Amino acid sequence: MPAIQTSKNKLPRRFSDLVAMMPPQAITDDVHHENVLQMIDQLMSLNKLSKGQEQYLETWVQLVSVYEAMHHAIDTSDMTGVSLLAHLLEENDMNASDLARLLGVHASMGSKILKGERALTVEHVKTISERFCVDPKIFIESFKLETSQNVVSAVKPKHPDLILSGEVYDKHDDVLEGYPDRRLKEDCDIEDIVDDQLDSWTVRFSAGDVAVYQKLDMFGRMAVKGRHSNYGYSGYFKASVFDGEKWRNFKIWNFVDDRSYNTQAEMKDLKTRVMKIISEQAGNLVVWTKRTYELK
To answer: Which domains, and CATH codes, for the chain?
Structure first.
């Protein structure tokens, strides 16, 4: 089957249209297999899949799994999790940077994962298994021997461990009202957004992204109400981390020493410093503890 050239931004959203473009069928040879993998790559590079695209992707993943089990089975009996992942990357002409992009993590994380310095989350395992069309159980069983995580299935936990991406945003300015998982692309106006063109104007946040926002303290609240105005609009900074679906509380006061300001004039400079300190934590693991995420 000849390769079908198409831009990822022009892929149809409806299942029937995708089928008309490249009908799912049993894979017959390695050329056909390579063309299908290119289609899978294009689908997985989209910020958000429609229901039709998800159904189409799952169909091809199942067909690829059958073909590879018959013709390209990988012997994992004597492989560790890291070596298995390295093998999959090599077979697909990918490197550590490609791995980081696939997982949606900071660029430095790809090499750290391959060196065994950082563990994979269950969501990472799911992404890898879908991309390389391997059974997630096989990968998890080989990888869990090298990690302290109790990974027993590919079911996403309610509060998965996250790797900080290093990207820090202003929650008030960057997180779209009504679309909390998205931010505007550069040079785009919020008034241009319509639901059926959402992907054209916005970018989805990645798991591990952080948003910073300010809160007035007691004196600041009193000043706003017209009392004790000599205190100024004082307050402090808090943060949230994106878990892939929602923004969750993120405890920063244990590594950001100074996050309080006395006046609005001080607030802007302090926000820049707080955002810089958080961005420097890129690649570090954060875990859920009771009601908040915090650095492990």
So the answer is: 8-71 (no CATH), 81-146 (1.10.260.40), 162-295 (no CATH)
